[in-house]
Amino acid sequence: MEYKVTLELNKRQAGIVMVACEEYLRLRMGQCWDLADDLALAGYVYDKNDPENETKFYAYIDRRDKMKTELENAIRAAWPDGYVRARSPEGDIAGDVWTSIRHAIAYHDHPEGGDSVNFHPLIQMGSEPLPKVSISEE
């Protein structure tokens, strides 16, 4: 039996779901850069007045690059033939959720529109219909 699920989120929660969907989509495609960067950045704060800033920066870069390599190796190991697929059905659905939320927030915050990809017409990539995202004021 087919049914719909409605989820009410505040803007911060929607942002987290949006990031989670994007990271999942990218991991399914073997694009580990953004996740490695985000995770490695934890705890690093750029401070040009800190005499250790350059050392801390290069430590962050080293963590990011190592994490990216490890994530890519793990993803390659998950597929029997070692070939990282460009797309997956689950990744495409996650991408549709991500872009639908991103698009709705962009138009809510800037109803006049804009030039960024956030304002381009949505293109369905997954096998499920595009999610309907509506935003209301609290």
Strand and helix layout:
Elements: H1 11-28, H2 33-41, H3 53-78, H4 89-109
If helices are DSSP runs of H or I spanning 4 or more residues, what is the number of helices?
4
User: Mean pLDDT, rounded to whole units?
Assistant: 87
Q: What class would the helix/strand composition place it in?
A: mainly alpha
Can you tell me the residue ranges where pLDDT is under 50 for at least 5 consecutive residues? none
Helix share, percent: 40-55%
Radius of gyration: 18 Å
Structural key phrases:
138 residues; mainly alpha; 4 helices
Descriptive account of the structure:
By secondary structure, the chain is mostly helical. The protein is built from four helices and no strands. It has one domain (11-119). Helix content is 54%, strand content 0%. The longest helix is centred in the middle third of the chain and has 26 residues, at 53-78. The two termini are 33 Å apart. The mean pLDDT is 87.
Question: Can I get a quick summary?
Answer:
The protein is mostly helical and 138 residues long.
